[in-house]
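Mods, move this if it's the wrong board.
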Amino acid sequence: MDFPKKLIIVSNRLPVTVHSDLTISRSPGGLVSGLESFLKRSSIKDYIWIGWPGSYLSPSAMDQLKSKFKRLKTYPISVSSKQFEKFYNGFCNKVLWPLFHEFLSYVDYNEEYWKTYVAVNKVFCNEVAKHVTPDSVVWVHDYHLLLLPSMLRSLFPNLPIGFFLHIPFPSPSIFMQLPWRKELMEGMLGADLIGFHTYEYTTNFLRTLIRMFGIDHKSGTFFYQDRVVRAETFPMGIDFELFNNASRKRKIKNLVKRIREQFGEKKIIFSIDRLDYTKGIYNRLLAYERLLQRRPDLRGKVVLLIIIVPSRVGVEQYQRMKRSLEEKISEINGTFGTIEWTPVLYYNKFLNFEELTAHYLASDVMLVTSLKDGMNLIAKEFVASRKDGKGVLILSEFAGSAKELGEALIVNPNSIEELTSAIEKALGLSEEEMRERLSVMQERLRRYNILKWGTDFLSSLEHVIAERMKLATKLLTPALIDKLKESFHKAHKRILFLDYDGTLVPFANRPSLAKPDTHLLSLLSALSQLANTEVVLISGRKKEDLERWFEGLNLNFICEHGLFIKRRGKDWEATAFMSSEIKNKIKSIMEVYVDRLPRSFIEEKEYSIVFHYRNADPEQANLRVAELVDELLGFTGTSDINLILGNKIVEVRPAGIDKGVAANLFLKDDNFDFILAIGDDTTDEDLFLKLPKEAVTIKVGMGTSNAKYSLKSYVDVRNLLEILASHE
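Not the wrong board. Structure tokens:
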């Protein structure tokens, strides 16, 4: 893999933690272990990792550990303990974590937390900026650093930036509740590629994008601030071989033997999670309690082994949850336990790799009952480790991994009855069925492992950057503009086809608000007065509007996308017709959808009719416009009528005429040796396609086009026209 040449990974935590005595140990967590496995398995050698080292390090401590950090390819950021508290336990885990997991009652919209979040993201940005080189690629990870991509983009406009969110992205209605939703969304949009674990999260992001900014997408690709950006799904894998071969290790074999001897013939139901309200730990206790009530014959024959990894120990909310779990465990043990048998064994500790895999291998049932989870790699690790083909995974449908591990016993963890029945079924499953379920899941995890995940992400990022470069090569540079000006002034006969809305003026909410300003009128007047020059103004608007707005100017017109043309000094000519009967029928169909889609409206022209929805709610518009198009296609399918999908419009007009056909009517009038056409819309593509090959065609805005060149906005178009109009 040639891309990237130099990879800069940025995450909240470094892969190593520095302790108070300045000793260094490996950091816990799925993100860290996943990325470390990817780097180990990939061919990427030139990389560095930027993050928080686990505690505040004084300048002298930083200096003391400098050589160690460099050897480990890690660069720590320096944030005071007080600041990090407001950042991590504050904004990250009292605002973003509960809201993204849809636990709205836990969200604390604290302004101070937000200010700290911005400040810490800037600290990360400053550190990354020190290491960026021309061949760098930056890969930002998770919800702690949502603002970082845009901060980096402002410093390095062409830097390839990828962002991956390791937690769920909520539905638009939930995300919109954030007071800082715009800033956070713009932060993510600084990236070229934005990755999510599941299609649901990707879709939620794209729906939010439409709702907040009115930006539509095509298969996850869209344009933002003249850049191509892509949102895509990359379900994070694991180091399959590492877990699948774990049972061969002597140390793990001995640990498995010790666990099995401890419990004898009892069936082990195992669960391990961080202490967090999203994990559904209390629900699994309720389900286990109900199982023991329902099945007295299982008492003394099963044990629920719960490992809870300490998490955010300083947060009162988590301490309350810990107390309630311990109280419930005591209640179950007090009700059902005997001297010989403790129904629930509970440990509050961290397990290293050997201990964890030994528990996976010793267990009969694995319980993963998340109420909401970005992915949950524990489920994947359990499946991968069971080389013996034994064991049953019970998995919440609300964990991202459920989308890949459909052969597990999938449950709704909010239904205690469903969860109880799943445990009961798992305990009675035959070895043959266990093996069948596990083998299918294992093959899937083997194919899409951690290396495939990381490689796919970086390959997609490379593709997006290639698309960006392709579009950049079409952009009219100053050198090309100079050549264009030279050709323009050397020509004997010139013609300019200029689209109006979005090309010469910005889009307006209503057609009546798009009147030309004095600067534009002056510019068009100057161009039209040049010798041997024809200026043709092209618009989808009505001829009455154009006559009124440009009265007195020596211009030619194409209006209603080619249905009418007007040569200067002559009368309007119709190029096609639509019967009033057909037009009225189309209008009646559109009126139904105006009622269904608030803030949409109809613009009626002489021989065409337009449904406008620029001002409507984007998400609702997507649904309603699709329905309208279906109905119109059903009506116009057998008629000599065309349905045109433009920029936030649906237009119905006679077939056989478009901007390109109308433009060629002007080209027949004379031999033009300089032809220029500028437009921004899908309707302008007909113009670009049907003009002679020697014509200079320019698309306004970034995106795929039949035009030879592009300009970023109407401002750039006016600047170009001013250059052409000048006599210098």
